[in-house]
Design a protein that fits this description.
By secondary structure, the chain is mainly α. It folds into 2 domains: 55 residues, no CATH class; 156 residues, Orthogonal Bundle (Tetracycline Repressor, domain 2), CATH 1.10.357. The protein has 11 helices and no strands. Helix 2 packs across helix 5 and helix 6 runs parallel beside helix 10.
């Protein structure tokens, strides 16, 4: 997921990828607002005219950056899940994985705030629409893998707890809303100035609430 300078990687015949790399660098430095096609071209060392042969405008380039950022977010979640110790109890294992995915989500936001903001830039004309409609199965496209990972983890946890899916409507959306909201509070909200240890405590407490929410669903469902 490393943001590689397009200017250092450009080779003849690979200008589109070089421009995307440069745009990823720009987003890493300052968020989606910094992504400008002319600046990406300047960093790569080509004219704006050459860049426009590969991208119609800023919106198309920003959409490519958004896709990259969403994939990087999912990669961060998967790496966090890989570090989870094994557990013989399938319920415990599922709880640990769900918490780890959330930890990887928030960790990515804090480590790469510019890319994180680019992943969720909102202007449809600039970024396109890659959201997953609630109530429909997650598709395997890489750009929505973060949502798919949360969905799979919630499914695994509810399956281990023998919770009927009808008892947990949109639970994956609730989990996503929780970690996304916490990320924004830590980046741009009143939690942004917390000391490092206090911030870590807040993250772990929030993840514990996500997992305990599944236990509450279990109790209500009578399982």
């Amino acid at each position: 997921m490393a943001a590689i300078s397009g200017g250092k990687t450009y080779h003849h015949g690979d200008l589109r990828n070089a421009l995307i790399c440069a745009a990823v660098d720009l987003a890493t430095e300052g968020g989606p607002e910094r992504v400008v096609l002319r600046e990406a071209a300047r960093r790569v060392g080509v004219s704006p005219t050459a860049a426009y042969r590969h991208f119609e405008g800023r919106g198309e380039l920003l959409k490519a950056v958004k896709t990259h950022a969403l994939r990087a977010l999912a990669d961060s979640m998967e790496r966090a899940a890989e570090r989870v110790p094994g557990a013989d109890d399938p319920t415990v294992a599922a709880e640990l994985r769900l918490a780890a995915l959330g930890r990887g989500y928030v960790g990515f936001a804090l480590e790469h705030p510019g890319l994180y903001r680019a992943a969720f830039c909102t202007p449809r004309a600039a970024c396109g629409d890659v959201w997953v409609p609630l109530g429909r199965p997650a598709e395997p496209e890489p750009e929505i893998r973060a949502f798919a990972l949360l969905t799979e983890a919630v499914n695994a946890l509810t399956g281990a707890c023998r919770i009927p899916r009808r008892a947990r409507p949109a639970a994956e959306a609730a989990a996503w809303s929780t970690v996304h909201g916490l990320s924004l509070l830590l980046l741009d909200g009143p939690l942004g100035g917390l000391p490092e240890q206090r911030r870590a405590d807040v993250v772990e407490s929030t993840l514990a609430l996500v997992v305990s929410g599944a236990r509450a669903v279990r109790a209500r469902s009578g399982s």
